[in-house]
Automatic annotation (TrEMBL):
Name of the molecule in the record: Nuclear factor erythroid 2-related factor 3
SMART domains: BRLZ
One MF annotation (Gene Ontology) recorded for this entry: RNA polymerase II cis-regulatory region sequence-specific DNA binding
Organism: Lonchura striata
CDD domains referenced in this protein's UniProt entry, alphabetically: bZIP_NFE2-like
Amino acid sequence: MAEDVDLKVCQGALDDCCPPLGQDQLELQEEEKDIYQSNSNHGDSLLSLEGYLQLLSSQVENMLEVNLLEDTQVATPSRGQDPSSSHHNINLTQTFQNSFSPPDAMLLRTDYPTQLNSKPRLLQRQEFFPQSSSDNTSSESQFHGSNLTGLFSVADLRNLTAHDDNNFDEIKLMSLALEEGFSPTEVSQIFEEPGSDSGLSLNSSHSTTSYSVCYEGSVGYSSSIKSAPLHGLGAVGGHCQEKIKHSHVEYPGVAECPTEVLQQFLHNHTYNQLPSQAASTLEHHQQMWMKKSNEVKDRCHNSTATNRSRDECRAKALRIPFSVEEIVSMSVDSFNTMLAQNQLTETQVSLLRDIRRRGKNKVAAQKCRKRKLNAILNLEEDVCNLQTQKESLKKEHSQCSKSINQIKQKLNNLYHDIFSRLRDDQGRPVNPRQYVIHCSSNGSVFIIPKHLAKSEQNQDNRKE
DNA sequence: TAACTTTGTCATCGG
DNA sequence: GCCCGATGACAAAGT
């Protein structure tokens, strides 16, 4: 019991001297630095990807300008024009044949990433935020803003938007996601994550609405044609004869597209380069695109993908031009400014808030677990130290006991030695059972009878 | 295949 | 009352 008290006192003294969490806090800071470093590395990858996109985009834009001059009809179809007319198809085919490689074509549709390197990022990005889906005009202008506008007539777009605003929102989601190389089922999976509270879930009835105009063959959904060129075809709209279907979508793949369109598209993407140069460039682009596409697809539908990856896919599908990392790490003011200055749909705002909340909470949970782990480690270390301390105190106690016994023994020996030398008035030895050695307060030493010593001791006690 | 660990998310609490 | 971080509890995926 006494040892326990001693240990507690010692532990208190130890805690006062060296608070146990001090070192841990430093370690935590280091670990957090690692996390942020890792995050920034992630951001570097994004920047390099953006650079690549910008490079390709500039090439495509140059070529597009030429094609726009040659065939404005494709770029800006008049309202009411039947986009499925043969004339349109011919122009479209020529445009594809003359200008686009599949990877570049993909870039045409995804316009915002091409300008991400601009410095005032927030302001610049606002320009690329999609307008509210309830605004037909803005939706229309957005499509016009896209370099792919020519692939669809305004009437088609109006049909889409008039059909159901929500559907149009989802169509935009699906369209963007599918452009990125996802299959319709994959996109559905992204938005049907259990537990997603962003209002993003595409129920089965929604997911079967009119997407075919955008996606037929667009993602090479047929397993036999999942190649880079088909991704590219899909990226630019994969315009086929069949128009909007308000029925269950089969995603038939390119097999239903006009054969000559496909073949011309598949066989000629040489720009105006020398054959070998064009081939190598194309091959490089295709490889790069396939790599990126596969990475994104893997991230988004792989069963092992993190939830952040799923959020990235959701954000991408909603055309939110910020990475999850940015959404989570930006300051509250920046975040609120971003929400306020961009005309976002409720879905977008909800997703942004969810992404931020989940991201913050994830980091908080990681920190919390680290703290808990460190606390456990500290307590284990404390236990270890206290056990060591206890053993040390035991040894010390044992040594003290030994010393006390030795002193007692010496005192006893001395006592008997003194009595053995003492003699009374008649020269007889003094009996130690009848007399005691008494030390008075003034330092005098007397030999007195025991009964007197007891009474004197009592008097001393009373005085005190 | 069961048991354990890791990780993300949600609900709740307190500052 | 709202916001935000901390944390327990739970589920899903990994080991």
